[in-house]
Structures are given as structure tokens and as C-alpha cells.
Amino acid sequence: MSQTIAEKILAAKAGVDRVTPGQIVDAYPDLVMSHTATWRSVSVMKKIGAKRLYDPNRLAIVLDHISPAKTEKYAADQQTSRNFAREYGIEKFYDVDAGIAHLVLMEHGHVKPGDLIVGTDSHCTIYGALGALGSGIGYTEVASVWVTGKLWMKVPTTIKLTLSGRFAGGVSAKDLMLYLIGTLGADGCGYKSVEFYGSALPQMSISERMTMANLAMEMGSKCVFIPPDEKTREWVLPRLKDSSSYKPVLADPDAVYEQSIDIDLTKLTPMIACPHQVENTKPVDEVMGTRIDQAFLGSCANGKYEDLVVAADILAGRKIDPRVRLIVTPGSKEIMLQAMRTGVLATLIESGALVTNPGCGACAGDGGTMADGEVSLSTANRNFVGRMGSNKSSIYLSSPATLAASALKGAIADPREFYR
């Protein structure tokens, strides 16, 4: 049939046999996610005079940004979202205690292979870690899908990335993605689908795949796929209410790709994204010794349980540099509880970390604000000017391992010394 994963999913959601790159289709998403910006979509719905939703069961609302509310305005916005959810019977509503929308929805079984999911966050590409087509849209488009059930979508071309080899100790999926973003550029995959393949994939955890699919947005990807395998099945099935709905979508063997790129993981080193663009990446040894005032471990890219464990393993029995503020924000309530039960949070706190409630945290400008001239090392997915406070501050991005090593040193450090 010569179809890629994106082509198959969009054809299915448009109710046609096949589609071709560049074609515009009326696609019906399985799920429409909105977060703290839900109030904006509610406002649009009121302006157009809409009174009914196409299907309330296809809506998911997660209040993850600036949670709990820190100003009266945020409190009012969140109240609008709660009232909307109650009025229309939105069952997939998660309040400020739940965590980051993407992680919450996946943990609660609302994402499965073959789904089409759109939402008010550009990093909806993360759903591709489970074989779903995830893509970010604006709040006006969200309101439109709420009412009509459908969305115009252009079928993207697809790039094939093949991974071989294994990561060396101290090198991870975050380093792979920073390398790719730096190599291909912020628009290297502009409005394209990306499919990952290769002998390296089976060894990668679901957490690593989430990091990959999440960060792929930073090279312009419209959607991303790690084709479902046995690991996907084992992770997703226990979370589904109806196991019969698990139907993986795979590309045809003769699918046509715009470009194919091979990457040998054994050749990768720890990478750093330098201010003020994610594509401004350098190997860690080129920026080692850069002092830091703050280290942020969190975000939908690296606030998962496995990420906390990586940092805790390095920090165990050690103290962070007294000049560094280490802020740890678990990505969800489920992750926080697991880290509590296994002692991971205790290890982080004993090292000198400040642990906050689950959510977007400093990545969304909620806490961890920096002053003029300060430098932050972050495991988030963006380092734009002013994202974490002062426009005169600087943000570097790294993996959890690099972040932990740097928090100990008080400056950007190579984590590989802790893996020898």
C-alpha cells in the first residue's frame, strides 16, 4: 500500500482509503486536550454562540500550568475550566494536583496506538511514543473541534530515522534529541512526520521514547512515531479500559520517505543546548565549567520517574554545590508517589534539592524564576529568552544525568565520570 504511519492514521480518521502528502483532509480526532488555556477556548465557544459539544467524551482537560493558581487571574481562569467541565460533563478532567497533561493522559489510558490526538500544547508530539499521532493546535482550533468534531489537517511527508548501537554510560535519549535538533535545525523537520526505527529501539524504555517524541517538536516535526512493539503493548494495555481497542498502526514495508537518516548511538556524547535556542547545541566538553545558579529537573521531556532515578543515582550520598538551587518537579502525581515509595525523593532532598508539587513548574514560568545575570541548567525542552524569568538570565538544556553532575559541581559538568 506504500503508506506511512501518519498517512494511515489520517486516512482512517478522515474516513477514506488512503491519503497523499500535501492533501487536506477533514480529520476527526479521538481526543482533544486542553490545559490551563482551556478558558480561552471556552471564551471562543461563547463568542460563536455554540451551546453543544460534538462529543464530550473526546475532551480532556488538565490544569497543569501555573498550578495551583498563583494570582487571582489564574484562579479565575481555572474556575472557568472547572465550571465548563461540570456543565458539559467532561469526565476526563484533571485538576491542579494531577501533573503535566501529556503524562497524565498517557498514564490514565487515554492514549493508544493509532489514535489522533490534538491539543493546546506544541509538545503533543509526545503521544507518538505510544504510536499515536499527536499534534499541537491553537485554542481557537480546539474550540472548533469541540463543536464540529473535526479539523482540517494537511498530510505530512515523512522522514525516517534509523538508530543503531547503544548509549554509553551518561548518554541518553535527551542527548540524542539535542544532537538531532542541533544537526537538523529548528525547522529541519518542518511540518513533517518522523518515524524512528533501528536495532537500538527495542532496548529503549517507554520513558526514553517519550523524551524522543517530545523533543522532536523542537526540530519542527508535525508528529512523531516510535512504532508500537511489545514494550508499548506491555505499558499501554494495563491502562486501557477496553483492551480490544489496542490496534497498532505500522507503516507499510514499501512506504515512501522524503529522507532517511542513520544515527549510531555509540558515537554520541552528552549534549548541551546553549542560550537562547534549542538548536544551539554543543558537546558538553565545549561548555564545561560554565557556572550555574539553578538546576531544574522536570518538564514533560524529563520529569518522569526514570529521569528522577537517573539524577538520584548520581546524587545519592552527595551534596549539591551550596551556590546552586536544585528544583525537582515530578511530572505527575503518579510519578511523585512512585518516587516517594521507592525513596528516590528522599535521596534528592537529602542531596539538597527542593521538591515541588507535580506539574509544569519552572518550565512554564511557575516558580524557579531567575534574576538578572543568573544561569539555569534545565531538563526542559526550551531555553528561550525570558522563559524562566529575567530576559537577562540564561538557560542551558541538558539530560537529567548532566544536570545532576552539574548541580554537584556548581557548573556544567560531564556526567560520564559517574559511570566509569
From TrEMBL:
Kindly state which keywords UniProt assigns to this record, in alphabetical order: 4Fe-4S, Amino-acid biosynthesis, Branched-chain amino acid biosynthesis, Iron, Iron-sulfur, Leucine biosynthesis, Lyase, Metal-binding
Q: Which reaction does it catalyse?
A: (2R,3S)-3-isopropylmalate = (2S)-2-isopropylmalate
Gene3D superfamilies to which the protein is assigned, alphabetical: Aconitase, domain 3
Pfam families given for it?
Aconitase (PF00330)
Q: Does the keyword Signal apply?
A: no
Q: Which cofactor does it need?
A: [4Fe-4S] cluster
Cofactor remark from the record: Binds 1 [4Fe-4S] cluster per subunit.
Establish whether keyword 4Fe-4S is in the entry. Answer: yes
InterPro entries listed in its UniProt record:
Acnase/IPM_dHydase_lsu_aba_1/3, Acoase/IPM_deHydtase_lsu_aba, Aconitase_4Fe-4S_dom, HAcnase/IPMdehydase_lsu_prok, Homoacnase/IPMdehydase_lsu, IPM_dehydratase_rel_enz
Q: What is its EC number?
A: 4.2.1.33
Name the pathway it acts in.
Amino-acid biosynthesis; L-leucine biosynthesis; L-leucine from 3-methyl-2-oxobutanoate: step 2/4
Residues reported in the UniProt entry to bind [4Fe-4S] cluster: C300, C360, C363
Subunit arrangement? Heterodimer of LeuC and LeuD.
Q: Which PANTHER family match?
A: 3-ISOPROPYLMALATE DEHYDRATASE LARGE SUBUNIT 1, HOMOACONITASE, MITOCHONDRIAL-RELATED
What does this chain do?
Catalyzes the isomerization between 2-isopropylmalate and 3-isopropylmalate, via the formation of 2-isopropylmaleate.
NCBIfam families annotated for this entry?
A: hacA_fam, IPMI_arch, PRK00402.1
Protein name per UniProt: 3-isopropylmalate dehydratase large subunit
Species: Steroidobacter flavus
Quote the gene name from the UniProt entry: leuC
